[in-house]
Design a protein that fits this description.
Metallo-beta-lactamase, Chain A; seven-stranded mixed beta sheet; six-stranded mixed beta sheet; 17 strands; binds zinc ion
Length: about 270
């Protein structure tokens, strides 16, 4: 098993000198000789943060997208223009659907769609789990058996709010380590517990060692927060990094419930596994 380094390249806040925040999320992942991105943020800070953190975007061989929202896909033109070689881009087919929050378009920006058609891109559109780089996996579509984790808010595919978007595109990434599985979340629109359960199934029951990323609990009721915390206890991760869209109240509840596991995220945060 290779050691894996995960650097937060974009997050809502910054956690390193010269790194900048944006409403977005992106991870730079180094494993063996390979470089991959999981999400690319909005694109407002991607190139600047990579430069400030000494990360070579040109070496990126693969990009996986958690879902089609602009704050995870807007940096595609920058990441793909920076790449020196061809780049495999992995997404769920629904990531390309139009997406709205009320009348506001929140899907993949037109420039990102154009960048995906570029000559250096190998687009892999799939609902299935699979390998992105050696030992680094995407979950594919997440089964959602628990009504307690129904979508916390309703997104649509049209500006008139007629067609509900269930965000089936939401997927996460994971890799195994001797101490258990590390899970990288996008926005966890599918529900963080749903995601952890599915990762554990895909990883043949291995323990969950770490959970990083957005948990989209900003509008969660107290009952839902308690349900998530109660189920998170069963996984008992030794590292928990609530970022991006987790929401301050949910992050505070997680920090209170898991004081020894929680660590700050933020652009520039580095995690070695
Ligand atoms: Zn989202
Ligand atoms: Zn998001």
């Amino acid at each position: 098993m290779n050691s894996v380094r995960v650097v937060v390249l974009s997050d809502n806040c910054a956690n390193a000198r010269a790194a900048r925040g944006e409403h977005g999320l992106s991870y730079f992942i180094e494993t063996g000789g390979h470089r991959a991105l999981f999400d690319v943020g909005q694109g407002l800070v991607l190139a600047e943060n990579a430069r400030a953190l000494g990360l070579d975007l040109g070496a990126v061989e693969a990009i996986a997208l958690s879902h089609g929202h602009y704050d995870h896909t807007g940096g595609l033109p920058i990441a793909l223009a920076a790449a020196r070689g061809s780049v495999a881009v992995y997404l769920h087919p629904d990531a390309l659907q139009p997406k709205y929050n009320g009348t506001r378009a929140v899907g993949m920006p037109p420039a990102a769609r154009e960048a995906l058609a570029g000559p250096n891109v190998r687009l892999v559109s799939s609902r299935e789990p699979g390998e992105v780089a050696p030992g680094l996996f995407r979950t594919g579509e997440i089964p959602r058996p628990h009504p307690e984790e129904a979508l916390a808010e309703t997104f649509h595919r049209d500006p008139a709010s007629q067609i509900v978007d269930p965000l089936l595109d939401d997927q996460s990434m994971y890799f195994d380590t001797p101490a258990g599985v590390v899970v990288l979340l996008g926005c966890a629109h599918a529900g963080v517990i749903h995601i952890l359960e599915h990762v554990q199934t895909l990883a043949n029951g291995r323990p969950i060692r770490a959970v990083l990323g957005g948990m989209h609990l900003g509008k969660a009721t107290d009952a839902r927060l308690q349900w998530v915390i109660q189920h998170m206890r069963k996984f008992d991760p030794r590292l928990l990094v609530p970022m991006h869209c987790t929401g301050p109240r949910a992050a505070a509840a997680l920090w209170a419930a898991f004081p020894n596991a929680c660590r700050p995220g933020g652009a520039g945060a580095v995690f070695d596994f």
